[in-house]
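Hey,
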Amino acid sequence: MTTENASSDAFDHSFKALYDHEVDWQAGLANELLTLPDGVQVKVLNQDLAMKRVDMKVKFPPGYVEPAHSHKSWHSIVVLKGRMCVAGKDLRPGDYVFGWDEIHGPYEYPDGCEVFVVFMGDGTEHEWSEEGHAAHQKVWEPETDEGKKAV
């Protein structure tokens, strides 16, 4: 990509309307963008380099635990499907989470979960401790057969 194209792509604020099926789930990209343990998939819906903003859907498999972490950006999350359990709350579709540069989590997904996330700032990468994550004891019990099989 030329510098001219990179510059114009960075400032592409054009209108977009996407069907969900037009964007594929990606596992490897999730590891690159989010730097989380394996198992997560993402659909990047829009990325604006000038605004330092990424809009994406993220899918967590049943039984997954997202480590306690921080970011170099803020994120807003809306639960679309499944359960996201954090800070003593059992969040369901329509519920909301906000995180910034202070430690937050761990997030448990006992039955799997799909969320819509907006990151804005200097990076989507999660900063977390492998040792702390390995020591985490799950708090939430699965409610679905799929979640119970994942335990």
